[in-house]
């Protein structure tokens, strides 16, 4: 029987990130990065035909999810990407690698000057048993897709040292509200967004991208009402009495911990927190739940930090 060409489809089972030609780790739910253009329609004459042509070339944002065990360079990229005090917010060249079950590279999407536009940290719940992951989205200036010929993806030997990340392991601290923070059982998801503007240059088809403003989310926590005295007093002074100047705002930290609660994976630093709403959770009269309180605070800036436990020494 004659040997024919293999036309079987291939399966993608793994997605990896490469930064500056170094493998940064496997990720989940990677998508985006396609080159595209808007279709422009024009009516030019009386023949009832609409002429169509393409507008400027653009590249879609790339998104992925990851947890612990990524390289130190990836976490540094996140750290510098939202630093509003820096004039040189992190841009990274890299590639999104598509590999099969045997870690053989099937294709790759190479990008240049990736600028982070969104960081999503998961909701926290002391009763949760699920694994936690962060979501990252960034805007590349250019992308190129290539197929085959990449060989086997080399995974660092210490990649297996990654620590498990659970949304039930966290520690919140807010100045002057330490006792109440120790009783927090839920924290809503936090998503930091950065707006990007395009700098069009007439002789280039690819536009330069520059960061502009950063959107900081509110910090929303839930705790037992019996331990909320500090937040009630802060709310009365800050909202009702009107003592809400900058000197009455607070700072705080949110630490994401390992399962043994001994090491810190990630830390979010909150600056200029201001409480604006304190409201009891709705409860049923016939039930016997713990009476809980939701506290909502605005925040002017959030800084991301990471510990050595999160990247396994790499």
SSE pattern: EEEEEHEEEEEEHEEEEHEEEE
Structural class: mainly beta
- Helix percentage range: under 10%
| Cα shape | globular
Write the layout of secondary structure elements.
Elements: E1 14-19, E2 22-32, E3 35-43, E4 50-59, E5 62-66, H1 72-81, E6 91-99, E7 105-121, E8 124-125, E9 134-139, E10 142-147, E11 170-174, H2 178-181, E12 184-187, E13 190-199, E14 208-215, E15 219-224, H3 229-240, E16 250-257, E17 264-280, E18 292-298, E19 301-306
Antiparallel strand pairs: 1-2, 1-6, 2-5, 3-4, 5-9, 6-7, 7-9, 7-10, 7-13, 8-12, 11-16, 12-15, 13-14, 15-18, 16-17, 17-18, 17-19
Describe the structure.
This protein has helices at 72-81, 178-181, 229-240; strands spanning 14-19, 22-32, 35-43, 50-59, 62-66, 91-99, 105-121, 124-125, 134-139, 142-147, 170-174, 184-187, 190-199, 208-215, 219-224, 250-257, 264-280, 292-298, 301-306. The protein has 314 residues and is mainly beta. The strands form three sheets. Strands 8, 11, 12, 15, 16, 17, 18 and 19 form an eight-stranded antiparallel β-sheet that branches. Strands 1-2-5-9-7-6 form a six-stranded antiparallel beta barrel. A hairpin with a 2-residue loop joins strand 1 (14-19) and strand 2 (22-32). The longest helix has 12 residues, at 229-240. It is globular and about 70 Å long. The model is unreliable at 1-6 (pLDDT under 50).
């Amino acid at each position: 029987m004659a040997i024919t060409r293999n036309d079987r489809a291939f399966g993608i089972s793994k997605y990896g990130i490469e930064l500056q030609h170094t493998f940064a780790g496997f990720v989940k739910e990677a998508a985006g990065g396609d080159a595209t253009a808007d279709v422009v329609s024009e009516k030019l004459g009386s023949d009832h035909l609409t002429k169509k042509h393409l507008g400027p070339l653009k590249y879609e944002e790339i998104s992925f999810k990851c947890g612990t065990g990524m390289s130190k360079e990836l976490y540094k990229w996140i750290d510098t990407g939202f630093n509003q005090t820096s004039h040189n917010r992190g841009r990274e060249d890299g590639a999104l690698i598509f590999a099969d079950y045997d870690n053989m590279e099937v294709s790759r999407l190479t990008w240049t000057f990736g600028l982070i536009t969104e960081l999503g940290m998961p909701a926290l719940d002391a009763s949760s048993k699920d694994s936690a992951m962060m979501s990252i989205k960034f805007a590349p200036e250019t992308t190129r897709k290539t197929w085959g010929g990449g060989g086997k993806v080399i995974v660092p030997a210490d990649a297996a040292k990654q620590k498990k990340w659970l949304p039930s392991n966290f520690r919140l601290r807010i100045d002057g509200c330490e006792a109440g923070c120790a009783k927090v059982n839920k924290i809503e998801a936090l998503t930091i967004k950065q707006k990007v503007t395009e700098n069009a240059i007439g002789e280039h088809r690819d536009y330069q991208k520059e960061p502009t403003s950063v959107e900081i989310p509110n910090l929303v926590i839930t705790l037992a009402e019996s331990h909320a005295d500090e937040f009630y007093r802060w709310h009365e002074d800050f909202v009702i009495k009107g003592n809400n100047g900058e000197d009455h705002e607070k700072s705080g930290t949110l630490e994401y911990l390992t399962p043994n609660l001994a090491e810190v994976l990630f830390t979010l630093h909150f600056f200029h927190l201001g409480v604006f709403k304190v409201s009891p959770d709705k409860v049923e009269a016939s039930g016997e739940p713990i009476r809980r309180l939701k506290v909502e605070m605005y925040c002017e800036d959030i800084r991301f930090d990471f510990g050595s436990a999160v990247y396994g020494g790499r």
